[in-house]
Write a structure and sequence with these properties.
By secondary structure, the chain is an alpha/beta fold. It folds into 2 domains: 14-348, ABC transporter type 1, transmembrane domain (ABC transporter transmembrane region fold, Up-down Bundle), CATH 1.20.1560; 370-470 and 544-650, 3-Layer(aba) Sandwich (Rossmann fold), CATH 3.40.50.300. Helix content is 61%, strand content 11%. The chain is built from 22 helices and 16 strands. Strands 8-11-12-5-13-14 form a 6-stranded mixed β-sheet, with helices on both faces. Strands 4-3-6-7 form a 4-stranded antiparallel β-sheet, with helices on one face. The longest helix has 49 residues, at 82-130. The termini are far apart. Bound molecules: adenosine-5'-triphosphate. The site of adenosine-5'-triphosphate has 11 residues, from α13. Residues 138, 379, 406, 424, 426-432 line the site of adenosine-5'-triphosphate.
């Protein structure tokens, strides 16, 4: 601690305070829809806390007016003054009953509001995350996202439910009690409240420390969720088992777990000794009050402080302990929950980079003309100081500099109904091209157009409807086959489902499953083979019936039968639609109306298979290296005949 001591406010503190205030304002904002109920709760709290001082005041009255008045007279009558006593006792019985009834109603309302606020927050967060661009998910750990939705929103739940009402009821209780104490005796009140400023100051300090620990706790929780999510998923556990890394993973988990315990322990302990201090003070003060009363009475030689006053006063004073103690607790909880709210708001503030333009139009009657005009795109800006190679080719064979652009001046023109095949070496940018059409990312330069309309001017909803995607990795929800298929068309009838499944060559297989279309598949359900999953994905797109189809053909080789089934499911699907295929199958390439050859983010050749083989460039090379391997298979499957390296398509 420097010479300026505790009280110096550093610029960081100032910053914190600003953030705090902004956070508090936003938290209050989340309660706005429930204004009426909040007001009612406030009123109830005011009434019950105010009623709380009546009984201690009644004690004073009972003692000094009804039971043991000065000189044996109680309000002009000999003591005890029974009618007065009945009245006081009646009030002392009625007040707690009324308070309890209001208290129950208040608890119900408080929980109702608190839980609803949390529900809104969870919905808002989920909806916001749904609309986040793909970039966000490729750069954020899944566990982190889950942690914010589950741990953080869950963490503030109890606090929001309890805190607001506790604060209000405490404030009212403290204020009303102090007023009542002042009414009884000003010097005794001053004596009792002597240490209050010290408590207040300590409260703020302890709160800050707790908040810091709370942030760390949540961070560690998120780390642990991520580890669990990464390593206890099917693929994660497969990887760790295959590489014999279980010990390493357990160790990693243990370290984080240990940190968590440490933080949780600190969180509990911070402020504990402080509580002890407050507790001790409150236990001691009645004795001090009696002492001071004795001094005052002996110095003045009269009963300035009467017995009833003393009893009433110390009762009131003990009423202060609970709210003051709980204010300290609440203040640390408020600090911790502000940290959680900060984390939630941080996500809610993430911008939606990709959203509907104000003048966006809905696509209808799509004909499916897809065009990329001089598109330049990169996933992220290269960090300063990293050399980039502006012209595509690497600077040296063994040390390729990062490319300045992932796609560098790509121009494609795909007419409605055409099948366009994208081929090129790994990392050329084929997948990236297919990401730009449904606006999973936006281009930095140039434009992507559908039917002559820039995709950035089309509503995302209608764009999504116009495009269907079949990816290499088929994702199935843990749900029935029917529900998985209906993802393509929520209102599909059973008949439509079977027709689509038949078209995708998967109906017979589904019929064989234990519960047919009602068999649960997916991550933890019935396991389908790679080929079956692909056919299911194809059926899903058949149901969706989009005008534009994006197809990322699987590179993992399926067995011949499976391959043939997938292939014959795809052919009718591609018919009559504009299809952009990242082609790995020879048959797709051979039937493509146009082949675009990509290399390091540029289109280097384009044409039909025959034209490109003739040209003897990159395509011819790729064809020799990659596709001819598959040709043997194709010979069997598609009856393609190879005559001395030349490909002749047969009528099939
Ligand atoms: P493959 O045939 O191996 O799938 P591809 O031609 O489809 O390759 P892309 O996936 O489009 O290639 O990738 C093009 C380049 O962009 C690669 O260098 C890749 O490393 C990079 N890249 C891909 N996705 C991202 C991402 N999310 N963030 C940063 N760079 C990326």
């Amino acid at each position: 601690m420097g010479r300026h001591g505790f009280f110096r406010v550093s610029p960081i503190d100032e910053d914190h305070r600003k953030v705090d205030r902004a956070t508090v304002r936003r938290v209050v904002g989340t309660f706005r829809p429930y204004k009426g109920k909040v007001g009612l709760v406030g009123l109830m709290i005011g009434v019950t806390s105010g009623l709380g001082v009546i009984n201690p005041l009644m004690i004073v009255a009972v003692f000094d007016n009804a039971l043991f008045g000065p000189n044996g007279t109680c309000q002009g009558q000999p003591c005890p003054n029974l009618p007065l006593l009945y009245f006081y006792v009646g009030v002392m019985i009625a007040v707690p009953i009324v308070t309890s009834i209001i208290g129950i109603a208040q608890t119900y309302l408080t929980n109702d509001v608190g839980l609803n606020v949390m529900q809104d927050l969870r919905n808002r967060l989920y909806q916001h995350l749904q609309a986040m661009p793909l970039r966000f998910f490729t750069t954020t750990r899944t566990g982190e996202i889950q942690s914010r939705l589950a741990n953080d929103v869950g963490g503030v739940q109890s606090v929001v439910t309890d805190t607001a009402s506790t604060v209000l009821s405490n404030v009212v209780t403290i204020v009303s009690t102090i007023i009542a104490m002042l009414v009884i005796s000003i010097p005794l009140t001053i004596l009792s409240l002597l240490l209050m400023p010290l408590f207040l100051w300590l409260t703020v300090k302890v709160g800050k420390a707790r908040r810091e620990v709370a942030t760390n706790t949540q961070r560690t929780l998120a780390d642990m969720t991520t580890i669990t999510e990464e390593t206890l998923s099917v693929s994660g556990i497969l990887l760790s088992k295959a590489f014999g890394r279980q010990r390493f993973e357990s160790e990693r988990f243990r370290t984080e777990n240990e940190r968590l315990t440490g933080f949780l322990l600190r969180q509990t302990m911070i402020g504990r000794s402080f509580f002890a201090l407050v507790g001790t003070f409150f236990s001691i003060t009645p004795a001090l009050v009696y002492l001071v009363a004795g001094w005052v009475n002996s110095n003045t030689g009269a009963n300035v402080i009467e017995a009833g006053m003393l009893v009433g006063f110390t009762t009131l004073q003990s009423r202060l302990f609970f709210p003051i103690g709980s204010m300290l607790q609440v203040s640390t909880e408020v600090q911790s929950s502000l940290a959680l709210f900060d984390r939630i708001f941080e996500y809610l503030d993430l911008p939606h980079e990709i959203h509907d333009a104000p003048d966006a139009v809905a696509l209808d009657d799509v004909s499916g003309h897809v065009r990329l005009r001089d598109v330049r795109f990169r996933y992220e800006d290269p960090p300063d100081g990293v050399p980039v190679s502006p012209d595509g080719p690497p600077l040296a064979d063994d040390d390729p500099a990062p490319r300045e652009w992932t796609l560098d001046g790509v121009a494609l023109d795909i007419r409605p109904g055409q099948l366009a095949a994208l081929v090129g070496p790994s990392g050329a940018g084929k997948t990236t091209v297919t990401y730009l059409v449904p606006r999973l990312y936006d281009v930095q330069e140039g434009s992507v157009e559908i039917d002559g309309l820039d995709v950035r001017r089309i509503t995302l909803e209608s764009l999504g409807e116009a495009i269907g995607v079949v990816t290499q990795e088929t994702y199935l929800f843990h749900d029935t086959v029917r529900r998985n298929l209906q993802y393509g068309k929520p209102d599909a009838t059973d008949e439509e489902l079977t027709t689509a499944a038949k078209a995708a060559n998967i109906h017979d297989r589904i019929a064989e499953l234990p519960e047919g279309y009602d068999t649960v598949v997916g991550e933890r359900g019935y396991k389908l083979s790679g080929g079956e999953k692909q056919r299911l994905a194809i059926a899903r797109v058949v149901l969706k019936d989009p005008r534009i189809l994006i197809l990322d053909e699987a590179t993992s080789s399926l067995d011949t039968t499976s391959e043939r089934l997938v292939q014959s499911a795809l052919e009718p699907l591609m018919k009559g639609r504009t299809t952009i295929a990242i082609a790995h199958r020879l048959s797709t390439i051979l039937s493509a109306d146009v082949i675009f050859v990509l290399d390091r983010g540029r289109i280097v050749e384009q044409g039909t298979h025959e034209e490109l083989v003739e040209r003897n460039g990159l395509y011819a090379q790729l064809y020799e290296q990659q596709f001819r391997g598959g040709l043997v298979e194709a010979e069997f499957e598609d009856g393609v005949i190879l005559a001395s390296g030349e490909v002749v398509r047969t009528e099939s």
